[in-house]
Amino acid sequence: MELRAAREIARAADEVFAFFSDASNNPRWQEGMISCHWTSEPPIGVGSTYQQRARFMRRDVTSTFVVTRFDPGRLIEIETVESTFPIGVVRTVEPVDESSCRVSALITGGPQGGLWRLVLPLMRRRPQKSVDADYDRLVRLLES
Q1: DSSP 32-81
Q2: For FRET with 107, which of 7, 23, 74, 98 sits at 20 to 30 Å CA-CA?
Q3: pLDDT tens digits for range 29-62
Q4: Are 131 and 1 in contact (CB under 8 A)?
């Protein structure tokens, strides 16, 4: 699975990056996210970890993530270290001007076996629609 999203947000790049690089904000803009909390001490950086609980396709998914790359204000890359739905995510932000920026995301991975492996190919469009809706929600939230 490979999903992509990109949006322009009418808000300063550093503010947008601070919001979306803090995993504890995930339930505010990602549908199906039940809870998310850091399991390592601040500040956020390479090696930081967090755990999240989500509901996806009527199933509970609990995942532990680690930050694998971190360029403050510009890029955060995370990957699951424990999950029934292992993924990697790269999120970037680039200033367009002083008061707006462009965010981009690349999500790769997916279920490794069992029922997920059978169902997901049949519903390939659903994960992309979900990611698109999440990034639309991020824009609305940060511009409000």
Answers
A1: TEEEEEESSPSSP-TT-EEEEEEEETTEEEEEEEEEEEEETTTEEEEEEE
A2: 98
A3: 999 999 999 999 999 999 999 999 998 777 888 9
A4: no
Q: Which CATH number fits domain 2-143: 1.25.40.10, 3.30.300.10, 3.40.640.10, 3.30.530.20?
A: 3.30.530.20
Beta bridge partners of 104: 6, 92
Tell me if the pTM is above 0.85: yes
Residue that the structure tokens 């990056």 belong to? 17
DSSP-derived 3-state class of residue 3: strand
Q: Per-domain residue ranges for the chain?
A: 2-143
Instruction: With H, G, I as helix, E, B as strand and everything else as coil, classify residue 94.
Output: strand
Cα–Cα distance between 41 and 50 in angstroms, integer? Answer: 10
